[in-house]
Amino acid sequence: MNRAFSHVPVLFEAAVESLRIDPHGVYVDCTGGGGGHSAAIASRLTDGRLLCIDRDPEAIAALNARFANQPQVTVVQENFFHLKSILPAQGIDAADGILADLGVSSHQLDAPERGFSFHNDAPLDMRMSMTGRTAAEAVNSLGQAELQRILSEYGEEKFAPAIARAIVRAREEAPIETTLALAQIVSNAVPAYARRDGHPARKTFQALRIYVNGELDGLTEAVTDMFDCLKVGGRVSVITFHSLEDRAVKRAFAPLAVGCTCPRNFPVCVCGKQPQAKLLKPVTPSAQELAENPRSRSAKLRTAQRLAPKQITVI
User: Fold this and answer.
1) Concatenated DSSP letters for 180-193?
2) CB 249 within 8 Å of CB 302
3) In this structure, what DSSP letter does residue 57 have?
4) Global pTM?
């Protein structure tokens, strides 16, 4: 379907400001989407450069159209997990700022044919890259134990055992091929009280989306790679939307800020360790943003700035 790619950026101003954009600098938007963050970054550049990455072909088409007349912007269809190979291929040694807006985009959620949402009946797809294994193939082929693990680990779904059993039982009768079919199976599998607080399939859909797209497989390492690709003084900012993503980012950032581990009574450092990064205070949506965009309710922005190595005396 020829549908305009749109995305409502969460923590928009905070994310762009966190990069402290230098008009002459080099910046990377790891999740270009509809180009909202990228456009704001590009508008602040003079002879600087922006590399805009996304793995969704519909996003790439929209980005190419949006930045067709802006030579300072380069659009690349790739998974930002491969950033350490993407940058050299584009002639970039290191960046002044790197931004990643994790999770699913508004367009992907709102386009029924993409199969991310349980609000419309559509093929059970959920692939961000529009290639590879679909969610339908996963729910119809994975064993009950693996389905339960995915729902529990990626969706933090406490009814994972019951839902996994229900999926296996249902597919014995007929393949599960659509979003509403899966949503109904989940709804029927959980207790009545669980259907009163939001849609009971929300966590199941989140879990399958994360599994199908490998969103958490190596995320901590990917964020560490982003930091490694920074110039001294550069910043990496990551927007997360649930606790699993946030924990992965924290695991990447925390060791970067660790300095000397010598006992306090040592007069001189003997370990030689020094912090590589300064971690900024996490930012969450304002009351106004929460009112205007309910999807921002769980968002959090974390930023790490690369520090210059210090000359220290080690004995």
Assistant:
1) HHHHHHHHHHS-GG
2) yes
3) H
4) 0.91
